[in-house]
Automatic annotation (TrEMBL):
Domain of life: Bacteria
Keyword annotations of the record: Membrane, Transmembrane, Transmembrane helix
Keyword Membrane: yes
Keyword Membrane in record: yes
Transmembrane annotation, as ranges: 125-144, 164-193, 214-234
Protein's name in the database: DUF2812 domain-containing protein
InterPro entries assigned to the protein according to its UniProt record, in alphabetical order: DUF2812
Species whose genome carries this gene: Candidatus Ventrousia excrementavium
Length: 396
C-alpha cells in the first residue's frame, strides 16, 4: 500500500497537527496532501521530521486564503519545505535536528494570524443559527403560532423516531459533531490567541491526547454507527403484493365486507404491503384498493406500529393524531368505545386504535363515509376488534 488516508486533527489544534504529521513520518508515512477532513500520506522510510503550520490571515470578505508567494519563498530560503495547504492551514516541514529558525521570534507577532481562523468558526456558528432561526420563523409564520410550530415539529420528530430511529440518532449525532467542532474552534482559537499574545509560543508537541479529540471521536463513531444501522434497516424493508390472507396485524377490506376485485388506483398504485423494523418498532404500511361494483373504488391505507411496550403504544396515539393527513390535530378526533380495543378515536375517514403494544392508524374511504356518522361508527375499528378477539379466543 503506497498511499494512506487518515483523519487529521481539526484546524484549530495547530500543535496537535504538527505532532501528528511528525509521528506519522516516524512510522514511514510522509504527508502529501491535506484536505478538509482527511490527510493523504505516501509510504517511505521512517523519517524524523518536524512540521510547522502557518495560518493565512485574509481580510474580511477576502476569499484568497493562500500565503503570499514572497512569504513562502522566505520560509523555503530559511530551510523549510512547503508541503501542502488546506483553507487557512499551510504546512511546512524540515529535518527534526536541523537548525532552521521558527517562523516567528516573538509569539506575539504570530497572534494576528489566528484571527482569521477564529473568525471562520464564529461565522460558521452564526450561519447555522441564522438558518435554523429563519426556518423556525418561516414555519411558525405559516402556522400562525410559534407554540403550534413547536408542537408540530415535535410530532414530526416523534414519528421519524418510530419509523427510522437510527436515522434520527445519526442526524442528531452529526449535528452534535458539527456544533461541537464549531464551538470548540471558537474557544480553542481564542485560547491560542491569548497564549500567543502573552508571549508563550505554540506547543509544537503536546504530550497528552486532548480530551476534545476523544469526545469528537465518540460523537463521530456514534454517527457512523447509527448511519450503518439505518442502512441495515433500509435493507430490511420489504414491499410485496398484498396477500389474500393478512400476514401481519393489519386489516383487509374484505374484513369489512368488501369482496370486490383488487384494482390499481388512478395513480397506478397497486395493493401492497411494506414491512420494516426500526429500533423503536416493527411496522406494516399497507394500501389496498378494490372495486365496489358500482364503477367506483374503496381504498384503505394503514400504518401499524408494534412498539416495545403498551405505554409507548398509547403515547404514540396523540402523535399520530397530530400528524394525521386530513384531521387538524387531536381536537378533530373523537374517542369511540370498541369492545376488545384498549382505546380508539375517529376523525372522518381516519381511525386510530391501540391494543396492547400495537397502534393502528387507518385511513378508510367508502360510500358510507358520506352518510351520518352513526351509520359507520367504528366500522374498521369493529372489524379490527373482531379479528383481535377471534385470535385471542383461538389462542386460548
Amino acid at each position: 500500500m503506497k498511499r494512506r488516508y487518515t483523519f487529521h486533527p481539526q484546524d484549530y489544534a495547530v500543535g496537535e497537527n504538527e505532532k501528528y504529521y511528525a509521528d506519522m513520518a516516524q512510522r514511514g508515512w510522509i504527508l502529501e496532501k491535506r484536505g478538509a477532513t482527511f490527510s493523504r500520506f505516501r509510504r517511505s522510510e521512517p523519517q524524523k521530521l518536524k512540521y510547522r503550520i502557518e495560518l493565512s490571515s485574509p481580510a474580511y470578505f477576502d476569499d484568497d486564503q493562500q500565503l503570499p508567494d514572497e512569504q513562502v519563498a522566505l520560509y523555503e530560503e530559511s530551510g523549510w519545505k512547503y508541503v501542502t495547504s488546506a483553507g487557512l492551514v499551510h504546512i511546512f516541514c524540515a529535518p527534526e535536528n536541523s537548525s532552521v529558525p521558527e517562523f516567528y521570534n516573538d509569539p506575539r507577532q504570530q497572534a494576528a494570524t489566528v484571527k482569521a481562523l477564529k473568525r471562520s468558526y464564529v461565522r460558521g456558528c452564526l450561519v447555522i443559527m441564522l438558518l435554523l432561526t429563519f426556518h423556525a420563523v418561516i414555519d411558525a409564520a405559516m402556522m400562525g403560532d410559534v407554540g403550534e410550530w413547536l408542537v408540530e415539529f415535535g410530532a414530526e420528530v416523534r414519528i421519524a423516531w418510530v419509523r427510522a430511529t437510527a436515522l434520527v440518532l445519526a442526524w442528531f449525532s452529526l449535528m452534535a459533531v458539527l456544533f461541537y467542532d464549531l464551538l470548540r474552534g471558537v474557544i480553542s482559537t481564542q485560547l491560542l490567541y491569548r497564549r500567543l499574545r502573552s508571549g508563550r509560543p505554540i506547543d509544537h508537541s503536546p504530550k497528552r491526547p486532548a480530551v476534545y479529540r476523544v469526545i469528537r471521536w465518540v460523537l463521530g463513531s456514534l454517527t457512523v454507527l447509527f448511519a450503518l444501522l439505518f442502512v441495515i434497516q433500509l435493507c430490511g424493508v420489504k414491499t410485496a403484493e398484498m396477500p389474500d390472507e393478512a400476514d401481519g396485524p393489519y386489516l383487509l377490506l374484505r374484513d369489512m365486507g368488501w369482496t370486490g376485485e383488487r384494482t390499481i388506483n388512478y395513480l397506478g398504485q397497486p395493493s401492497e404491503v411494506e414491512t420494516a423494523r426500526s429500533l423503536a418498532a416493527r411496522q406494516w404500511h399497507t394500501y389496498e384498493c378494490v372495486s365496489d361494483g358500482a364503477e367506483s373504488e374503496v381504498w384503505m391505507y394503514q400504518d401499524v406500529y408494534q412498539m416495545r411496550s403498551p405505554a409507548r403504544a398509547m403515547a404514540l396515539a396523540p402523535v399520530l393524531m397530530r400528524d394525521a393527513t386530513f384531521a387538524h390535530g387531536p381536537e378533530s378526533f373523537s374517542a369511540v368505545s370498541v369492545p376488545g380495543i384498549d382505546a380508539a378515536w375517529r376523525a372522518g375517514m381516519e381511525f386510530i386504535a391501540v391494543r396492547g403494544d400495537t397502534v393502528w392508524y387507518i385511513t378508510y374511504s367508502d360510500p358510507g363515509l358520506y352518510s351520518p356518522e352513526e351509520e359507520l361508527l367504528g366500522d374498521p375499528l369493529a372489524a379490527l376488534a373482531h379479528i383481535l378477539n377471534t385470535e385471542e379466543t383461538s389462542g386460548e
